[in-house]
Each structure stands twice: as C-alpha cells, then as structure tokens.
Design brief:
Layout: E1 5-11, E2 22-25, E3 28-33, E4 44-48, H1 56-60, E5 63-65, E6 85-89, E7 93-96, E8 102-106, E9 112-116, E10 147-154, E11 160-164, H2 170-177, E12 195-201, E13 204-210, E14 237-242, H3 252-266, E15 275-279, H4 286-293, E16 298-299, H5 308-325, E17 332-333, E18 343-347, E19 350-354, H6 356-361, H7 370-383, H8 385-392, E20 399-402, E21 405-408
Parallel strand pairs: 1-5, 4-6, 11-13, 11-14, 14-15, 15-16, 19-20
Antiparallel strand pairs: 1-10, 2-3, 4-9, 7-8, 7-10, 8-17, 12-13, 18-19, 20-21
C-alpha cells in the first residue's frame, strides 16, 4: 500500500530526577552532598532515509516515543540520558506541526529536523552546593518530555511526471520504459496511487512518475487526481499525455487546455516548468488526426514501440537542462528562535503561571524544604514573575498556581 499523508503522535523522553544524598565519613557527621543529576530525556528527530519509500508504517502505528532519562544516584553518579527517537521518512517528506506550520522539507538522504526536545534531568543536591549552602538537602524533579501530533506529507522526487486524463495510457508507458509495474485496465481511474520508475536512455538515467489521472476541477477536489497533485510539485519536467481514442469525452486540444489549467491552478509555477506533450496510443487511427489538432505533440505507442526512443531522449534532454538550471532540489528546515512561553492569567480569585521556565523554577522534590522554597522564589523573581504579577494586579496573599503547585504571592519576596 502506498501511503503519502499520515498523522503521527510523537513524544520526547522524560528527564530523570536528581537525588539528595550524603556521603558520611569519619569526622564529617553531616556528610558531604553527593547526589547526582538525572539524565535528560531523549529528543525526537525526523530524518529522511533513502531506504524508506512509504509512510505506511506510521499509518499502522502512529504513536512513537523517545527513551526516558534515568534518575541520579549517590556518589555523584548522574542518570543515563534517554535514547533519542529517530523517525525515518522517505525523501521528499514535509513535516507539519499542529499549528499547520511547515517545519521542514526533507529532500536529501540524512536531512533531518529535531521536532521535540527531551525533558531536562533534575539536579541532585551536589549541584546546589555553594558558600552559603554547604549541605543542601534538596533535589529537582525531572521534566516531562513534550508530546504533539505532526503531519507527514510525502511529495515524490521525480525528474519527469506523466500527467493526463484517466486511462490515457500513462501506466502502460511507464510499465514499458521502466521496471515500474502499474495496474492497467480499460476503465477510468485505473491508477489509484503514483508509481516511480527509473528510465535508462543510453548512458543516462532519470526517474519518471505515473501520476493518477486528472480531470477538470481536480485542483478543487474533483475526481481522484487532486489527492496526488502534490506529487507533481517536485517534478523537473511535465510530460503531458493526451489520449486520441474515441473513448475520451474531451478532444485532445481540450485535454491539453484542461491539464495545463489544473496544474497552474494548483501551483502557478508549474506553468513555467519544461513541458513535453505526447499523444499516446499512436497505433490507433485517430492518432493522425489528433496530431493535426495538436502539432506540437510527439506521437508514441507503448504497444508498438513507435516514437518511444525519440520520446525518451527528448525527456532526458529536458531533464538534463533542468538539472543544470537547478542542480539541487530545494529543501529546508525551519529554525525558530527560542521565545519565552511565560504566561500569567487570572484563575478564579488567584493566578495561573504557565511556561517551561516557570515549571523548571519550582521543580523541586520537596518545596517544604526552606532552601528549596528560597531558591524557587529567587528563580521566579529573576524571571520577572513577581513584577508581572504586580503589574497584573496581584496582591499579597493571593494564590498563585504553577501546574499542580499552589503558592502564596508575597510582594517582598527575597531577591
């Protein structure tokens, strides 16, 4: 089964917790803090892999997650980092987030984008030792890894795309000139999925795609072809296949007009791509008349072999010219600057603080510990939370919620 669009749920790994531990030795009854940090959770990276040809695996199994970091231990032993999750996708895959933002267009083998970062591991008590805090008995919890749904959309990487009405003979052409084997029959919409084939012409090779049949209105969703117009986007050369047989309701000049209009309506720049117009089924008596109507068309027959060699050389020439004009296929990874996600809002009679940094500031195993409470208050103050609460109208004694934690706002919090 060919699958070219899937929704995938990905989750980064959770961070491990830091530990509060003391090494007690003779002459040091209080002991020396030796609690290690927790390991970071694994990241999630989507990577283009030339050995992958379809998104079928993600249709069958849409949920994937990275490994969790392990907890810290005594004797200054840090937790192990969680294993990263590498999500292999076919070349030509576009990665889209829940906000419909295109994060990456992965067109080269090994091209990748990290879509989720693992949760940070918590600090152990050894990390809090300072001249003012000689024997801290505090430790941080690990962060939860973020999770989200993403859309993977595959756009085939073909050099030449065969475009035509249903049953125009495209499948027969690609089956004849390459090793690709498409379903062939005498009824419309025979091809329900695109096919790729490698075509060899003397010492040259190029990739040809058989795009499912288009009809008028395909760009607006009519017929089946609109599902596959995206696969035309990357093709360097457009091979427009016209069907002269009397079974087609539209004459060849009308077919040419409709096909060009649908491509331009879907993506205007397609109108400027190199085009080759061919009349398929050249063994039919109607082919001669069709050639008079569309003199620019090249007559070919996949059944008799008429014109095939000339057609392949002409296609290879156009592909070569397109390669020279743009040797590298475009691709990109969106790099978004880190921005604060701090948000303060009214919640009942109190306040709600949201954001990664705020969660980190209070992520202690035990906030009843005076040292932990003091450090958390200092962190929030440095972030500007106290000032933001005051500007929002908070008063001393108001409840402030961060996650499940309930704090009390004090205007004179220690800096």
């Amino acid at each position: 089964m060919f699958v070219d669009r899937v929704s995938v749920h990905l989750k980064a790994g959770n961070g491990g917790a830091g530990v509060s531990s003391f090494l007690r030795t003779k002459g040091r009854p209080k002991g020396r803090p030796d609690g290690g940090n927790g390991g970071h959770g694994g990241d999630v990276t989507v990577r283009a892999d030339s050995s992958v040809s379809t998104l079928l695996r993600y249709k069958r199994q849409p949920h994937h997650r990275a490994g969790d970091g392990t907890h810290g231990q005594g004797d200054l032993r840090s937790g192990r980092r969680g294993s990263d999750l590498i999500v292999p996708v076919p070349l030509g895959t576009v990665v889209i987030d829940e906000q419909k933002t295109v994060l990456a267009d992965l067109v080269a083998d090994g091209h990748e984008v990290t879509v989720l970062r693992g949760g940070r591991g918590g600090k152990g008590n050894a990390a809090f030792v300072s001249p003012k805090l000689r024997a801290p008995a505090i430790a941080e919890q690990g962060e939860f890894g973020k999770e989200a749904w993403f859309t993977f959309e595959l756009k085939l990487l073909a050099d030449a795309a065969l475009i035509g009405y249903p049953n125009a003979g495209k499948s027969t052409i690609i089956s004849t000139v390459s090793a690709a084997k498409s379903k062939i029959a005498d009824y419309p919409f025979t091809t329900l999925e695109p096919h790729l084939g490698v075509v060899s012409v003397d010492d040259r090779e190029f990739v040809m795609a058989d795009i499912p049949g288009l009809i008028e209105g395909a760009a607006e969703g009519r017929g089946l072809g609109h599902e596959f117009l995206r696969h035309v986007e990357r093709a360097r050369v457009m091979v427009i296949v016209l069907d002269p047989s009397p079974l087609q309701t539209d004459p060849v000049d009308r077919q040419l007009e409709v096909l060009r209009a649908e491509m331009e309506r879907y993506l205007p720049e397609l109108a400027h791509r190199p085009q080759l117009v061919v009349l398929s089924k050249g063994d039919l008596p109607e082919a001669g008349r069709a050639k008079e109507i569309v003199p620019e068309a090249m007559v070919i027959s996949a059944v008799s072999g008429e014109g095939l060699e000339r057609f392949l050389h002409a296609t290879a020439d156009l592909v070569d010219l397109a390669h020279k004009a743009a040797p590298d296929r475009p691709g990109f990874v969106l790099h978004r600057p880190a921005v604060s996600d701090l948000k303060i809002s009214r919640e009942g009679r109190g306040w709600r603080i949201e954001g990664t940094a705020a969660q980190r500031a209070v992520a202690f195993a035990d906030l009843t510990n005076p040292d932990a409470a003091r450090i958390a208050a200092q962190r929030l103050a440095r972030m500007g939370v106290d000032e933001a609460l005051a500007e929002a109208g908070a008063r001393p004694g108001d409840e402030v919620r961060i996650g499940d934690l309930v704090l009390e706002y004090q205007q004179d919090s220690e800096e």
